[in-house]
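Hi R.,

Quick one: here's the Cyclin-C1-1 sequence you asked about.
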Amino acid sequence: MTNHIWKLAQHVKVRQRVIATAVTYFRRVYTRKSLTEYDPRLVTTTCLYLASKAEESTVQARLLVFYIKKICTDEKYRCEIKDILEMEMKLLEALDYYLVVFHPYRPLLQLLQDAGMTDLTHISWGLVNDTYKMDLILIHPPYMIALACIYIASVLKDKETTAWFEELRVDMNVVKNIAIEILDFYDFYRVESFKGMAESFKGISDEKINAALHKLTPKP
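And here's the predicted structure, written out as C-alpha cells:
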C-alpha cells in the first residue's frame, strides 16, 4: 500500500523526506490498528497529507483529491476532502500525537563526510530511499540504517572501509544484519527494486551486483 504514497507524492511534488515521513506514519499506525479498522487506501493519502504539514511542506487536501481522481482508476481509492480531514484526526490519535520522525538521511551525509566517501552519496541515498519499502525504520536507529547503506555501497564500489568502521566502534553484527535485510529485499523483489534504483546503480554491472550480494550474505 505504501506504493500509493510514492505514486501520489510524485504528482504533488514533495520532498523525499515528506514521503519517508508519510511511509513511517503508515507503518506506525498499523502496528496499533488493523487493516479492517482503518481503510489503508484512505490512510495512505492522509499520511501524506499529515506528513506534508509535519515537514512544513504542506500539500492542500484538495490537491491530493484532484490527483487521486486523476491517477486512480479504482473507485475505491477515491475520496473527498472531508474524508481526509476526518481520517487525519484518527491518525493523530493513533500516533499519540507524536509526529516527529528521525530519518537516516542526515546521519548518512554526516558519516560519508567524516569517512571522506562523499562519492558514495548517490548510491547510499538510493539505498536509504528503498529501506522505506521495508520496516527497518520501525526497528533500527536511523544512524545504523545509514551505516548499513554505506556498507553495502562501499562493497558495490570496492571501497575499503574496515578501518573506518572499527574507529566508529559500532556493532558490526547489527550493521551487517541490517545490510542483509536490505539485500534480501532486493533479492526477493530483484527486478522492480533495482529498476527503481537505476540511477544509483548506473555503471555497475549485474555481475558486480551479484558478487556484492554474495559477499555480504553469510554462508550457510
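The CA atoms of residues 131 and 182 lie 7 Å apart.

Cheers,
M.
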